[in-house]
Amino acid sequence: MANRHFSWIAVALFGSALALTTACGSSDNNPSPSNPTGGSGGTAGSGTGGTGGMSTGGTGGMATGGTGGTAGTGGGNCTGTDFPNCYSCAPKTNDQYLNACKSGCQAFDNSTLSELKNGQLPPLP
Amino acid sequence: MGLSTNKMSRLWVACAAASGSMLAAHAVHAANCTSLPNPIYVTGSSAVQPFLAGLGTVLAAGSNPITIVYKKQGSCTGGDAIVNDTKMTGTATYWTASSSVSGETCDLPTAGLPADVGASDVFWTSCAGSGPLPSNVGDFFGPVEVMTFVVPKASSHQSISAEAAYLTFGLGQAGKTPWVDETQLFVRNAQSGTQSEIGTAIKVPPSKFKGIDSGGSSGVLTSVSSATNVDKAIGILSTGETDDARDKIKELAYQHYGQSCGFWPDSSPTSFDKMNVRDGHYPIWGPLHMFAYVDKNGKATNSNALLLIDYVSGAKELQGANLVDVTIDAHLIPQCAMQVTRTSEIGALASYQPAAPCGCYFDKKTTGQTSCQACTNDSDCSTNHCRHGYCEAN
C-alpha cells in the first residue's frame, strides 16, 4: 500500500514537473536573445513569450534595472557563436533582431565606463 | 583712429561700392521662388536635402517641369510649418535639371508663404512641446534615413555603445568617456531630427545634448573632419552626409542598449549596402516624414503635397528616372528594400515584407552583386515576380 502510494506520488510529481517544464518552456520556442550587456531599465528580461532576456531552464530571466542585466544564454539551442550570446534562431522580437547572429560586428567594452555604476546610468544633470 | 580723413573717405566709398555690387549681384542671381515652374514648397529637415535634390532635378527635367522649393531649417520646424501654419520666409533652395545637390537660390515673398509639405526625420511627437498630431495633419512615410556617430577618419575609435553615448552627450566631461572634451562634441540643436532620433535612442533629450551646436549638418561635417585631436572629436550625422565624406570622416559601429555587439549601418565600414539597417542590427533609423493637411479619409488635401507624396511613395512614376535609384543615390533606403519595420521613434523592430520588394536590386546597385536571379519579365521567375530586373519573393 505504501509502495503504491509512493508510486502515485512519484507519477504526480513527474507529471507536474513535465507540465511545468512545458509551460515555462513555451518561451523557449522563441527564446530570447541573450544577453543584454546593456539593456536599459531592465527591459532585457521578462522572458515572457521570449521577448527578452533569458529563459534558462524555462525559469525566465530578469534584468535588474539600470542599463540592463546579465540575461542568460537565450535558452534552448538558439545561442550562436558569431558574438557572445548571439541569437541563432529566426528573430521575432526587438532584442532578437538586435542580437541575431551575424559576423562583422565591433563590440564596445562598457567595462571601461567608470561612470556606469553596477550597470546603472547616472541621472542627467 | 589711426586713419586720416582722406583714407576714411576712400574706405567708405570702397565699402559702399562693394555693398552695391553685392546687392546688384543678388538682384541678378536670386530668382523669385513664386515665378519658378510649378513650385512645390517644402521646409524642414536638413538631412533630406540630398534626396530632395535628386528628386528635384528629375522633376525639373520632366515634360511638365515641377520645381521643388526647399527651405532647410530642421525637422521640427518642418512639422511646425504644417501643424502651426508657420510661413516660409527668406531665401530657399530649388533645383533645375542640371543643378548640383546644393541647388540654386530663390527669394520667398517678404510676407512669407505656406509650405505644402513639412519634411521631418522624426515623428511629430518627438519634437519638444509638440503634443499629438492634429487630426487634419497626416504623416506620410518616405524612405528610411539613418543616423550615425562620426569621428575623424584618423581616429582610433571603432565603436560606441548606447551607454557611452549617453555619458558622452548627456554628461559631457563628467561622463569620463573617451570623448570628454565638450568643445569637441559636434552636435546640432533641439530642432534637429538627427539629434532627436539619436537622443531617443540613447535616452538623452535633444535639448540636453552637451557639445557645440555646429549650425547644421554641413557644420558638423566640417568640424569633425577638421578636428586636430582626432581621438577626442565626435559628431552626429545622417548617412546622407557621411556616405559622401568617407575620405574625411568615419562612422562608428553602434551597440544599442541590450545589444551584445556593435554594428555599422552597412555590412562593413567600407560598404554602402545598409544591410545592418535593413535586417535590424543597426537601430538608429526612421522613415522620412512628410506632414501635410489631410481630409477625414487621411488623403492630402493640398494638390502639391499629394503630388510630392505620390512621387516619393512610388504611387506616381517619375519620368525618365527610377525612384529607387534616386533614393539609393541619396544614401537612403527605399521601404521596398527593408526587412524590418517599426511604428514609433526607435520603437520595437518587427518583420516587414514589402508588397513590391526591391532588395535584390538594392544589393546589386550598392554592392555590384546579388544572389538573385536576373529576369526581364515575371515568367522568368519561379516566384512570378520580376522587379527591377531581378526575381523577388513576391
Main sheet characteristics of chain A: none
Runs of chain B in which pLDDT lies below 50 for 5 or more consecutive residues are 1-5, 13-27
Name the helix and strand elements of chain A from N-terminus to C-terminus, one letter apiece. Answer: HH
Q: pLDDT below 50 for ≥5 consecutive residues: which ranges of chain A?
A: 1-74
Give average pLDDT of chain B, whole number. 92
What is shown here, in short?
Chain A has 125 residues and is mainly alpha-helical.
Question: Describe it for me?
Answer:
The complex is a heterodimer of chains A (about 120) and B (about 400). Chain A is mainly alpha-helical and about 120 residues long. The radius of gyration of chain A is 19 Å and the shape is elongated. Chain A has a domain at about 30-105. The longest helix of chain A is centred in the first third of the chain and has 23 residues, at about 1-25. Chain A has helices spanning about 1-25, 95-100. Chain B is of the alpha/beta class. Chain B has 3 domains: about 30-140 and about 290-330, 3-Layer(aba) Sandwich (D-Maltodextrin-Binding Protein, domain 2); about 145-285, Periplasmic binding protein-like II (D-Maltodextrin-Binding Protein, domain 2, 3-Layer(aba) Sandwich); about 355-394, no CATH class. Helices cover about 30% and strands about 20% of the residues of chain B. Chain B has helices spanning about 5-30, 50-60, 75-85, 160-170, 195-200, 215-225, 240, 275-280, 305-315, 325-330, 360-365, and strands at about 30, 40-45, 65-70, 90-95, 105, 115-120, 135-150, 160, 185, 210-215, 235-240, 250, 255, 285-295, 340, 350, 385, 390. In chain B, the strands form 4 sheets. In chain B, strands 1, 2, 3, 4, 5, 6, 7, 9, 10, 11, 12 and 14 form a 12-stranded mixed beta sheet that branches. In chain B, strands 8-13 form a two-stranded parallel ribbon. In chain B, strands 15-16 form a two-stranded antiparallel ribbon. In chain B, β15 (about 340) and β16 (about 350) form a beta hairpin. In chain B, α2 packs antiparallel against α10 (about 325-330). Chain B is globular. Classes of the chains: A mainly alpha (about 120), B alpha/beta (about 400).
